[in-house]
Amino acid sequence: MNKDSKKKFGEKVRILRKKLGWSQEELAARCNLHRTYIGAIERGERNVSLLNIVILARALHVKPSDLLEGIS
After folding, report:
1. Which residues make Cβ contacts (< 8 Å) with residue 17, sequence separation at least 6?
2. pTM of the full predicted structure?
3. What pLDDT sits at residue 3?
4. Which distant-in-sequence residues (6+ apart) come within 8 Å of 35 by Cβ?
């Protein structure tokens, strides 16, 4: 993933999280991840592993492919 791809992925996570009305803390708790890690994902600073993509997708009630759609 290049920097632009990470940023697009993070934006999708942020949009979906906000649609659900959740804070970063709440999403982190539902994923059993740290809040600062969620923040770094949303800012496009992290190269997210496949396992964490699946965990995020489940928590956000979407398919993992939905999080990756349009990212290249």
Report:
1. 24, 27, 38, 42, 60
2. 0.93
3. 76
4. 24, 25, 28
